[in-house]
Putative aldehyde dehydrogenase transmembrane protein (Mesorhizobium plurifarium), 117 residues
Amino acid sequence: MNIAAKNLSIATEAAAILERLGVDKGAYTGGDIRTFSPVTGEQTGGLKTVTSAEAAAKIDQADDAFRAWRLVPAPKRGELVRLFGEELRAAKSDLGRLVSIEAGKIPSEGLGPKCRK
């Protein structure tokens, strides 16, 4: 069921979608950088800033992950990428709606050019 049809706020709808997608609520609430809907102007979330040291640690973690990933045999990487694509396709409707909310796009534009009908 489309949450928007229930006349929920954009922020409530976005939070419900993120919850369905398994995103931890702490990742988009309570931060010091506020996000707003370009359509309604209402606050949709809050992102946390990090210190230079925290950013450097995250960059180091990403570098470590890359170095580990490149050691995975190509067929296994390909299979993992294929499975990731399946997960994205399964969540296409929710992800498209999030794009619509974030960017102020109409729903068909949020889904992307190949998904419009």
Observations:
- DSSP finds five helices and two strands in the chain.
- Residues 3-108 form one domain.
